[in-house]
Amino acid sequence: MWITLFVIILIWLLWMVGSRIWTNRLLKQSATVLSSEDFEVQSHGHDIVDIREPAKFKAKHIFGARNIQYMLLKENHAALRKDKPVFLYDENGQFVARIAKVLHKDGYNQVNVLKGGFNTYKGKVKSNQ
């Protein structure tokens, strides 16, 4: 029984590490990853997109951001201009890598992503709490 538990934990750890490596690789190929400070400075006056669920967005989001859910943006990103920088973030940086890849394949060359997601952001936020 202990061996089975050990194998399950080992597989889970390998999955988590592999997932993180894959996410980082996708981001490096598809977008510029910015620290919280750089994201706040560089995104000023540009299109900031929060891909989290609407409830989380309404509770608290980066000042000036608009909410386009992950699935909606993945299916139709016509609301974004290809000729201007796009700044994306999610909760913790997992889903944003996939969106960055989709946008990059579709010709968006100025995709910027918040490193670590909203959980790591230290700039101006709008809160409804």
TrEMBL record:
Domain of life according to the entry: Bacteria
Domain Rhodanese residues, every copy: 42-126
Pfam family, one: Rhodanese
InterPro entries (UniProt xref): GlpE_sulfurtransferase, Rhodanese-like_dom, Rhodanese-like_dom_sf
Protein's organism: Weissella hellenica
Name this protein carries in UniProt: Rhodanese-like domain-containing protein
Signal sequence, renumbered to the chain: none
UniProt xrefs under PANTHER family: FAD-DEPENDENT OXIDOREDUCTASE (PTHR43031), RHODANESE-RELATED SULFURTRANSFERASES (PTHR43031:SF18)
